[in-house]
Amino acid sequence: MLYCLKYRAQNKARENRVRSDHMCDTRQIWVLVTAPFARSLNDYAPWPVLLSGYANPTQALVSIAYSASDPAGVPVGTNGYTPASGYFRLWRTQAPQARNGASILSGGDYIPLGTYAATSLGFSVSTRLVDLFIEPVTPGTNQTLLVEVDPDGSGPKGFVCVDKWQSTVIRIEDLDWLAATNEAMHHTDLYQTNALLLRRCDKFKVDVRLSAGYSSDEHKLWFEAFDTFDGSLKTSKVPAVTSDLSPGEWYAKLLTVSNSADGTRTAHIEINIPTNAAIGEYRWRLNLSPKDADGNVIAQKWFQDYVIVLFNPWAPSDEVYMADDSHRNEYVLGMNGVIRLYDSYGTCSTMRWRYAQFSADALHALLCEISASGHGFIGNRSDRSSATGISRHLGARCDAIDGGILAGKWQPPYTAAHKLPWEWAGSDEILRIYNSSGGQSARYGQCWVYAGLLTTLLRSAGIPARPLTNHTSHHDKNGNGIDDTYYYPDGTVYDYETWSFHAWCDAWMRRSDRPGHDGWQAVDGTPQEPSNGTYRMGPAPLSAIRSNAGGLYDVDFVYSEVQNRPFNRWVGDGTSAWTLTDTGTTTWIGAEIVTKSVASDSFQDIRSEYK
What we know:
Layout lengths: L2 E7 L20 E5 L10 E9 L7 E5 L10 E2 L2 E2 L6 E4 L22 E4 L11 E8 L3 E11 L10 E16 L2 H7 L10 E4 L2 E9 L8 E9 L6 E5 L1 E2 L9 E9 L5 E9 L6 E11 L8 E12 L14 H7 L4 E7 L5 E7 L5 H10 L17 H11 L8 E3 L18 H10 L5 E4 L1 H15 L3 E10 L8 E5 L5 E3 L2 E12 L9 E6 L5 E2 L2 E2 L1 E5 H5 L8 H8 L3 E7 L5 E8 L6 E5 L6 E3 L1 H4 L1
Parallel strand pairs: 12-20, 16-17, 23-24, 26-33
Antiparallel strand pairs: 1-11, 2-3, 3-9, 4-8, 4-10, 5-6, 7-9, 10-11, 11-13, 13-18, 14-15, 14-19, 17-18, 19-20, 21-22, 25-28, 25-35, 26-27, 28-29, 29-32, 30-31, 33-34, 35-36
């Protein structure tokens, strides 16, 4: 139940008390004692009733009057059940136990209002303390629960002992995510989804509507954000505070409380998403506790809406922070771009590309690929807090070798039912096919298609990204640092390691694991060589590539793609018998390395960043 039941005694004292009546002498005291209670989440409010004094349990009558909501009067419809009129139900059994909704007079566990023989409520000569349990049903303030005892039943004394309580039922009515305001502030209003999208390292506001009776002086509202990674729930506590905590912590701060004409109250709350929050989906639960006791949850409500948390390139504390607004507009918000292609003669052409990173298909694919519910496993929760981990994983998930998004094919024949690599015009088509087929890889792609696709996924996650093209790109297949080309005796090429061009991506981030190597990082979605057992490449810092510093991740491999190197020319018959016929040093590797210019469809040569 999503209620809080608070209460107060009608008389001034809240502790157990004894009431006498003018019809009793000093030796004849009939007493009904009700102990104060606090309702826990999994329990109804216990109401221990003690019948003492000279009352005869086999004769006594107990009259119970309250606003009862009969469980037998609950209509069930397509939208669930609607409680019968009334504010409470009184039971002989606690909430976790199986209960019979019929009256106790008919063998059930429900106690309607009325007058009962004390024995029918469980009293006996040996049992004078009986626990009753109050279930709150409908919000309401100052509702009365009245119990009277006639200690001798049909005898002369009558109902001379009275205990009267007034109670208030508080319900968590609803939560308004203030989506339009929050998404505009978090730069997520372009995403095509009904879920609330937020960026970490920032705050957002929510309005919680509660029934009358809620008081910020008596109650504390606090949240739990459940990360749905790998199908289980991992909780991030969002404690209630009166002042800001560290930006690296979850917390919720009550701003103000307002009253509505219908009697409900609205708590206006600000929640902080920490700098290291994992990227992905969260479910939320709201808890209501006494002001001084967080652990005593007296009301709770799950919210079915998912909140999606992304990287935040607008926040200086996020590792993907990009200070220049024009660069953010290009590398995060830019939805269209151009990618340069070269043929074997060095002639260049331009491929226009729709990134569509805010589309429902892009967001769906992103969330699937960074969770175990998709087709692959990112490793652990900390990886999803890291732009390094996310970009490395997305690079692996672009290709179909391990069941990813796009199948590559570099030579005919091509199946007519699928698109040829040069027929794609954007990532949206690829992701639509992939999502609608239940995760079957789309066909077919080559390097510039992978570059456009990976750029989409990175930007969708909030990581600034750009595709680039390396004119005359070396692929060091055996890792020997030499450009090897193999010829048949007639001069035709058997195998080679230098391509006319290759396209991949750069992703922008700080590298806490590689101090001094912040900035652009090379990451590739085209399957070339395994890296730690999986076909992926990067993120390799451009600064480390430029200085030939080696180290994580795949710096040596990217260095070999862009730098001139010794070459060997071999002639043979296509078997193991090869003769070295020529050696030298290349002068053509990485002849151009270009990417789209900021705010322009012209190309910028970024060789100086790589070599």
